[in-house]
Specification:
- This protein has helices spanning 11-22, 40-50, 64-67, 71-92, 125-140, 160-171, 187-199, 216-226, 257-261, 270-281; strands at 2-6, 26-29, 54-57, 95-101, 144-149, 152-153, 173-177, 181-182, 185-186, 204-207, 210-211, 214-215, 233-237, 267-269.
- With 283 residues, the protein is an alpha/beta fold.
- It has a 6-stranded parallel sheet with strand order 2-1-3-4-5-10, with helices on both faces. It has a two-stranded parallel ribbon with strand order 6-9.
- Helix 1 (11-22) packs across helix 7 (187-199) and helix 8 (216-226) packs across helix 10 (270-281).
- The chain starts with a strand and ends with a helix.
Length: 283
């Protein structure tokens, strides 16, 4: 199978390429230099000439706070860029995997959000543009997977774990919000699932994060515990302590039942993922 991957320099794209290669698939790895997804003719040329069986679309504008002041750019990448790729997947009748986010939900309550939940109500520009990307995929592509993830960490790029380790070493103490709940997602664990999807035909909208629920405070405590940094003081605080431009959801609990219902494996528990990740980056 030949698969084109966008956003290969990001955390997820990096691991998706490795997983595809591990399974012997031919990979066309692209970033903005190889294919500017906001330019339709460039997208048309690259995808058509690549003669692929599908696209795993990982590229996105992910600077959540900056998006509030750069709405046009965020929309151009997340909405228009995704529509351009979806258009080509439709024209060529090939599969498309689109990575979305828990930020499409309003973050209220304590119940788990379901993949086919109709109560979509993004709280910020980033979430809105990612949802508009979802709409473009569902409107245009016959063979699609929309996969919503959250709290991402991987080898490539910056993330919460790397930030906590740095601040812990520099300050010896951190304050972390304790009123926002969800599940971390280790890109190394997610990548095999995305390739499984590309190899099968159980299309639709899915949620995929590591198993288990925690707050950002719980997440930070586990990081320091497994990193052997027990001397770091972690203080739980209300999210109002950290005013940010983009409102975050308090409830990012997402149901992954649909994965099992369609023959896919759930990801390992998040604590196990943190331990394996730390072993990778702290060697």
């Amino acid at each position: 199978m030949r698969v084109l991957v966008t956003g290969v320099n990001g955390q997820l794209g990096y691991d998706v390429v490795l997983e595809l290669e591990r399974r012997g698939h031919a990979v066309i790895a692209t970033d903005a230099n190889q294919m500017d997804i906001t330019k339709m003719e460039q997208v048309r040329s690259v995808i058509t000439n690549a003669k692929v069986d599908g696209v795993i679309h990982c590229a996105a504008y992910t600077a959540v706070d900056a998006a509030e002041e750069n709405q046009e750019l965020c929309s151009k990448v997340n909405t228009e860029g995704t529509r351009n790729i979806a258009t080509m997947c439709n024209e060529l009748d090939i599969k498309m995997v689109y990575i979305s986010t828990d930020y499409v939900f309003n973050g209220q309550g304590t119940e788990h959000w379901h993949p086919d939940e109709s109560q979509i109500a993004p709280l910020n520009i980033y979430g809105q543009t990612k949802y508009e990307g979802e709409q473009a995929v569902q409107e245009l592509v016959k063979k699609f997977y929309i996969v919503r993830i959250a709290w991402v960490f991987g080898i490539n790029g910056n993330n919460f774990i790397k930030t906590m380790l740095r601040l812990g070493k520099e300050r010896g103490a951190v304050s972390v919000v304790s009123d926002q709940f969800g599940s971390p997602t280790y890109t190394y664990d997610l990548a095999p699932l995305l390739v499984d999807m590309m190899e099968t035909e159980n299309y639709g909208v899915y949620h995929a994060t590591n198993e288990g629920i925690c707050s950002w405070y719980d997440f930070a405590c586990e990081i320091f515990n497994q990193a052997g940094m027990d001397t770091v003081t972690v203080t739980p605080v209300d999210s109002s302590t950290f005013p940010v431009k983009a409102k975050r959801p308090n409830n990012s609990r997402m149901s992954k039942d649909k994965l099992e219902e369609n023959g896919y494996q759930r990801l390992p528990v998040w604590q196990d993922a943190v331990g394996r990740y730390l072993q990778e980056i702290m060697l």
